[in-house]
Design brief:
mainly alpha, 7 helices
């Protein structure tokens, strides 16, 4: 089971310097504190006994996302959906984009970007 809550980067920004210098004590305390609050809320509203049933817990923050993806501000969905996106086909011959950055944020738009890139590739390949 997964429990997820979106977190704004500005809250975590104060931990950034220490986090990337491997001094994560304050950061770890805060993320565990917030995770405990979230678990208590879910336990109280939906799943009694949740805390006792947790065997493994992984907590990610926008800083985690930066570490693994280098996405600005720890973005998990790519560009804001309300902004213009990059196109799957680029001006560079043979270069196609397939990601949340190419088609807008979220899992489905990222998959659609992959589909669009493959369609462009196959169409371009036919004309060679």
């Amino acid at each position: 089971m997964s429990i997820m809550s979106l977190a704004d980067y500005t809250f975590w920004e104060k931990f950034e310097k220490d986090y990337f210098n491997e001094n994560k004590d304050a950061y770890n305390r805060k993320k565990h504190q917030l995770a405990e609050i979230l678990i208590e809320q879910v336990e109280g509203l939906l799943i009694p006994g949740l805390k006792e049933s947790i065997e493994v817990m992984e907590i990610g923050t926008p800083l985690t996302n930066i570490r693994y993806t280098q996405n600005p501000g720890g973005a998990i969905y790519g560009y804001d959906r309300n902004k213009k996106h990059l196109e799957s086909r680029t001006p560079a011959k043979g270069l196609y984009l397939a990601s949340a950055w190419a088609n807008g944020g979220g899992y489905t738009p990222a998959m659609m970007a992959g589909r669009n890139a493959v369609r462009h590739l196959l169409n371009d390949f036919k004309t060679l």
